[in-house]
Amino acid sequence: MIQVEGGLSVKAAMLGGKRIVHTVFLDETRHDKDAHFIERKAEELSIPMQKMSRHEIDEMANGRTHGGVLAHVGERMYQTKEETIQGTPLLALVEGVEDPFNLGYIMRSLYSAGCTGLVLRNRDWSNAESTILKSSAGAFEYLNVVLSDDLSKDVKWYKQQGIKACAAMRKDAVPYWNNCYTEPCLIAIGGEMRGLSSGVLKEMDQNIYIPYANDFRAALNAAGACAAIFFEAFRQREAVTSKMQ
């Protein structure tokens, strides 16, 4: 059983549809709009709810920012590759990011920019799920996530579906804003310590890089790179949509 804390995280777990929510715990003195929404949704979704004193919730909580809202939930259900390629896919592959806070920040940017699926190396994230959920501001519950046993093999599969593969890699690269993202594409981004593996890089169709305004040689972290590149993809796609209207 996993415990998630805070109204934002609990609402995302309830609404995301990617895990079972067993019980919601709510501070009995809360009568605000947020609390009423959680109560109403719990009733609609047939999720058991317990109202408790703030002291009891404080005793249950692992942190101090829960705001009087907790939930006991099951492990997250992950998606298949096939579930991520509907419409015009905008996919991310992130490799070498192990810190759950950083992964959550990445997911927040990806989901906000319209990413349709995130591919990660397969590992057990269950002990970090509550941290990822909170640092992603709930995006973890909405974003399609695929756990891969073989990243290079899965990139090859995506390419066979007509999806262009790009890597955030400076060698033989073009500025990221000169790359086209309006067609189906997958963008691979590596952690700042190890970067992308050679097997993944071998499958790439195009390398892209983020130009800097000055002579700064340190790489952006993965969260910063994801935000820059995926919001450029969003900008390009929005421009195409606007022209069609």
Give structural notes.
The structure is a single chain. This protein is an alpha/beta fold. Helices cover 36% and strands 22% of the residues. It is built from eight helices and eleven strands. It has helices at 7-16, 33-44, 54-60, 100-112, 129-135, 151-160, 198-202, 222-244; strands at 2-5, 21-27, 49-52, 69-73, 90-95, 117-121, 145-148, 164-168, 173-175, 185-190, 206-209. It has a seven-stranded parallel sheet. The protein has a four-stranded mixed sheet with strand order 1-4-2-3. The radius of gyration is 20 Å and the shape is elongated. The N and C termini lie far apart (47 Å). The mean pLDDT is 94.
Provide the descriptors you would attach to this structure in a database record.
alpha/beta; 4-stranded mixed beta sheet
Q: What topology emerges from the helices and strands here?
A:
Elements: E1 2-5, H1 7-16, E2 21-27, H2 33-44, E3 49-52, H3 54-60, E4 69-73, E5 90-95, H4 100-112, E6 117-121, H5 129-135, E7 145-148, H6 151-160, E8 164-168, E9 173-175, E10 185-190, H7 198-202, E11 206-209, H8 222-244
Parallel strand pairs: 2-3, 5-6, 5-10, 6-7, 8-10, 8-11, 9-11
Antiparallel strand pairs: 1-4, 2-4
Helix pairs in contact: 1-2, 4-5, 4-8
Spatial shape: elongated
Major sheet description: 7 strands, parallel
Q: Percentage of helical residues?
A: 25-40%
Q: Catalogue the unreliable spans.
A: none
The number of E-state strands comes to: 11
What portion of residues belong to β-strands?
15-25%
User: Going across the major beta sheet, what is the strand order?
Assistant: 7-6-5-10-8-11-9
The H-and-E topology, N to C, reads as: EHEHEHEEHEHEHEEEHEH
The overall pLDDT average reads: 94
C-alpha termini separation: 47 Å
